[in-house]
Amino acid sequence: MSVDRTLRNASISGRLRDLHIVGGLLADRGAAGAAEVDLEGARLIPGLHDHHIHLAAAAAAVDSVSLTPDELVAGGGLGALLRAARQRHPEGWLRGIGYDLTQSGWLDRRDLDEVAVGPVRIQDRTGSRWVLDSTGLAEVLGDRADGSPQPDGVERDAAGRPTGHLVRLDAWMRERLPPHQPDWLRLGQRLAAHGVTSVTDAGHLNDLAALAMLASANLPQRIWAMTKGSVTSFAMPEPTGRVVVDAVKIVLDDDALPRLDLLAQQVEAAHAVDRGVAVHCVTDVQLALALSAGLGPGDRIEHANVVPEGYAELIARAGVAVCVQPGLIATRGDRYLDEVEPDRHHELFRLRALAAAGVPLLGGSDAPLGPISPWRGIEAATTRRTGSGAVLGADEGLGPVTAAKMYQRSAGRGWPVRVLAPGDPADLLVLGDDAPSGPEVVATLVEGVVVHGSL
C-alpha cells in the first residue's frame, strides 16, 4: 500500500527540492500527516521503463543455466556446466540459455547425448532456436519421432532424422513440456534493484491467457504488453490488477517475409481499433518493408539493428518510434563486427543518427536475450564498446543524459520523457554513488511503494 510521503532535500536535476507523494501520485503539496524523509541531497530521478522485455522468458532464465561464450570459458565448457547443473537439479528438464551456435560451435542432439544429462533443451542466443537432446526430443515429439508428420520448424538431417533443432516453436513446445512456474518474485526483485519501475512485454504470441498470467504474476513493476493481432482489449479485475494492452506485435523474418499488401492489412487492422503496431526489424530488408506498410505515429520499429543511410529521415517523417537495445552492443557487438561487411559497420545499432533526425528512441533490454540492467544499456549507448573493448560506430554514441532518457520515456503513444510532474505516478529512484556498472540504486518506488532498498 502506498504511503503518503514528503521527500525533503532531494537533488533533482542539480537542484534541492521537496517532492510530495499523495495516493501513489506526485502532488504539488503534501498530505496532512504525511511521513517526511530527508534525502540529504541524494539524487532523485524518475523510474526507468524497459520498453522491450520478454517477461516469462526472463523469469524462466532466473533458474536456467547461462551458456554464453564467457560463461563457457569460465565454467570449463558446455559439458562441465550442464553436469554441474544436473547435480544441483537431479530431476526434470535442464534449460540452457545464451548459447551462441556461431561463436561457441554448432550443436545437435548427438552432442548433447554425449553429455548424458537429459532431458535438456538449450536456447540459441538469438532466441529463435532450441536444441534438444534425444531424451528431450522424444518427450516433445512423442510417437512422431519415428518420422510421422511434424510441424514446420522441426529440423531433419539428410536421412530424415530429427537433428534436435526446433525453430520458432516456443508455443508448440511449451504445450508439450511439464508445467513450470516462472520465478516471478526473483525477476521482480532483480528489475527493481536495477531501478526498473515499469516494463513493456514484447511477446508476439501474447493472447488473453498470456496477459492473465502476467497480471497474476504480481510483479512490483507496472506492465504494458504487446499482443498478437487478435487481441483488441484486455483488463484484469481486482485483485490481480491490470495489464495495459499496448501495440500489436508483428515479427518479420527474412526467410518468410509477407507480401506488402498483407502486411499493410495487418497494420490497418490494428489502427482501426486504435492500436499501434510494433514491427520486429533486425535487417535492412525488414526495415524497408515495414516502412512501406503504412506505419505512422504511435507505431514502433523494434531493434533496427541495421539502419542504412537516409533511413533515419524516413522513419522520422513517418512519425515512428524506434525501440533499441544498446546493451546488445556490449554482449553481441563483436559478433556483428565479424559477420557484417566492414563498409556497413556504420549502419549497426545507430543511435545518434536516429536522435538527430528527431526519431523518439525507446530503451529496452530484450532480456533474457540481452542484459537486463538498463544501466548497461546506457553505458553501451555512450561508449559503444563491445565485450572485447572494440568500438562499434563511435559516431553513433549518445551523451549520458540522452541515453538515460531512452529509459525514462513513458509507455503508450507519444512516449513523453517523464519530468516528475504532479499527477504522474510516483515511480522514483533514489541514487547513491556512481560505479562502473551504473549508480547505486538506494531505493526504488513504484506508485509510492518502496519495492527495493529503503528510504
TrEMBL record:
Query: GO MF annotations for this entry?
Result: hydrolase activity, acting on carbon-nitrogen (but not peptide) bonds
What are the alphabetically sorted keywords of the record?
Hydrolase
* InterPro entries given in the database record: Amidohydro_3 (IPR013108), Metal-dep_hydrolase_composite (IPR011059), Metal_Hydrolase (IPR032466)
The identity of this protein, by name, is Amidohydrolase
Source organism's superkingdom?
Bacteria
* Domain Amidohydrolase, residue spans: 36-452
- Family annotation (Pfam families): Amidohydro_3
Q: Which Gene3D superfamilies match?
A: 3.10.310.70, Metal-dependent hydrolases, Urease, subunit C, domain 1
